[in-house]
Amino acid sequence: MTIEIRNETTTVVDEREFIELARFVFEAMHLHPATEMSILFVDEAAMEKLHVQWLDLPGPTDVMSFPMDELIPGTPQQPAPEGLLGDVVLCPSVAAAQAAEAGHSPVEEMLLLTVHSILHLLGYDHMEEDERTEMFDLQRKLLLTFLASRPAR
């Protein structure tokens, strides 16, 4: 698995933590061991440009997902084929504001958004209520299992 991280912000990001999370989700979703993905951390101005360009929506957003090979989750018996999953673009300052409203840390918000985006890259969506329930339940399970599996820091 190749997970490339690039931080174009002044926010300090523990890149290793995001790589470990992505690997955890890749394994849980039975992705091919050679699957590739990138995570990019950008400031609000860069995120706003992407938000306008791709979704025609004003202002910065928390996270955007850009799928590449349209991979879908595999199973233990049939892992997903090898491929390029896509790109996740996160805006730490928007995530920090959301974290403050939600009552948890900015890093917890960014980890949640990373799981959320990986699921989008795998074809999950939340436009319909049943899709929302499925995606958000899976996102919560993956994140909580990942956090519980790590040694105390």
TrEMBL record:
An example Gene Ontology biological process: rRNA processing
Keyword Protein biosynthesis assigned: no
Textual note on the cofactor: Binds 1 zinc ion.
Chief location: cytoplasm
One protein family per Pfam: YbeY
Keywords assigned: Cytoplasm, Endonuclease, Hydrolase, Metal-binding, Nuclease, Ribosome biogenesis, rRNA processing, Zinc
Listed GO MF terms: metalloendopeptidase activity; RNA endonuclease activity; zinc ion binding
Assigned EC number: 3.1.-.-
A GO CC term assigned to this protein in UniProt: cytoplasm
Cofactor: Zn(2+)
Annotated compartments: Cytoplasm
Binding site for Zn(2+): H116, H120, H126
Superkingdom of source: Bacteria
Biological function: Single strand-specific metallo-endoribonuclease involved in late-stage 70S ribosome quality control and in maturation of the 3' terminus of the 16S rRNA.
Family according to the record: Belongs to the endoribonuclease YbeY family.
Protein name per its UniProtKB record: Endoribonuclease YbeY
Lineage of source species: Bacteria, Bacillati, Actinomycetota, Actinomycetes, Micrococcales
